[in-house]
Amino acid sequence: MGNTAPVVSIQAPPDGGFFDWGNALPYRIGVSDAEDGDTPVCSRVQWTFGLGHDTHAHPETTGTGCSGAWPTPASAPEHGETENIYGVVVVSYRDNGAGAIPGALGEATRVLNPKLTQAEHADTASGVVETPDDTASAKAKLTSFDPGDWIAYDPVHFAGITGVVTRAAGAGTLALRWNSPAAEPFATVPVPAGDGWQTITTALQGLPEGTGRLYVTSSGGVDLDAFTFQGGGVADTTPPAVTATLAPAQPGGSNGWYTGDVTLTVTATDNGALAGRQYSLDGGTTWANANNPVTLSAEGAKEVRYRATGSGGNVSPPGTLTVKIDKTDPVVSVTGVAPGPHGDSAALTPVVSATDAASGVAKVTADLDGTPVASGKPVPLWRLPLGEHRLTGTATDRAGRSATTVVTFGTTTSYADVRALISRFRQAAAVSGKVASELGEQLAQAERHERKGKRVQAVAALERFVKVAEKRGNVRDPAARAALVRDAEALIERLRSP
Ligand SMILES: [Ca+2]
Ligand SMILES: [Ca+2]
Ligand SMILES: [Ca+2]
Ligand SMILES: [Ca+2]
């Protein structure tokens, strides 16, 4: 029984890709192992980003994971303006081992090129001379670049490259070739006659694919300083994709209103690594951390913006959603209803009104002793039983929250109230003039007797009143008839009580 070392493969970025110092470089690592299989434990995938420096490397940053982004230090050029510095990444994975055999280490390496590439830092060269020049980039240039001479860079991969800016002096034509100094050029850079350093921008199309060796040749007559490749290269230039969810997912209130706090969760994915997630409640003026779920508690309808930033510094376009929160019941008030007691010849005009924080008032209703009444419409009290009454005002807001206010009041009757009712019923033609006079006369008698303390006689007069009032032919309206009888009986009851 043995153990084979795992095979580490760097699926991205490609060997020889270009970047700028400070970029984040998305990476993807695969590991296959004869004993452990092809699904690595990602926390055991270790990488080290170092600065390549001539033939050795300085470790800079380490991390773990099957995917993510390698940071590149923006300060790398400070290692020395004239130094040949590039990126070197070493990825390693130790397998599970087998029995008593310890885990075996697999390793893979990437070399990555800064987009600013010095002519004098070519990996290999033939026939050229490196010449110091304080006016040149990195203080050196290549001279004696004659037909048949060449310089080469290896490895090179043109992923994400769209052009090259050449810094050169003199006049002539440079040719870029792939894998051989004798290959047909895939691009040429004409250097026009001119004084001093010139920068020539060349768009590059149909570039060679894969990792290979870049050769540069010259027609002669050109001193070459540096190339700066254009385009994103293997840097992370893609912003994260961001989404947001609310919990609860569906509002508990009406019309899309939540009636309590809401949790906002911002989720994002990136081709590299995520730097952070944010949200804004002020239209994007200020952004707050949303790396963890956020509790939204402010009432009202708020536009929530959310976004994510990738390790490359790319910010996603903001998403928006509207969150409507109403945690406050309406405030209901009832006017026009004093506690009383009120004589039953009067009328009350209850008015129910309401205000509401957040969603606003949707509906106001009123009911009197359980029967709906219209707010603002007079209620004739003779139509109610004598005694205690409850007027209930109810308001509902657009979120479906409701509140009630109850006002109680009393109704009574008296000789004056009954007299006023007779007169009203007469005007409404509910009683004839003759009946009204007769009822009025009995009522007046009862009142006189009572004033003199003759309660028995007063009761007798009211009983005659009842006899007249309860005749269907005398009072045509059944409600009016019942009210007159009821009121007279209430007066009798009062006279009889000690
Ligand atoms: Ca193994
Ligand atoms: Ca140079
Ligand atoms: Ca990205
Ligand atoms: Ca409310």
From TrEMBL:
Record PROSITE patterns: CBM6
InterPro entries, per the entry: CBM6 (IPR005084), Cellulose-bd_IV (IPR006584), FIMAH_dom (IPR054470), Galactose-bd-like_sf (IPR008979), Ig-like_OmpL47-like (IPR058094)
Alphabetically ordered keywords of this record: Signal
Entries under SUPFAM superfamilies matching the protein: Galactose-binding domain-like
Residue ranges occupied by any CBM6 domain in the UniProt entry: 115-230
Pfam families, alphabetized: CBM_6, FIMAH
Record's protein name: OmpL47-type beta-barrel domain-containing protein
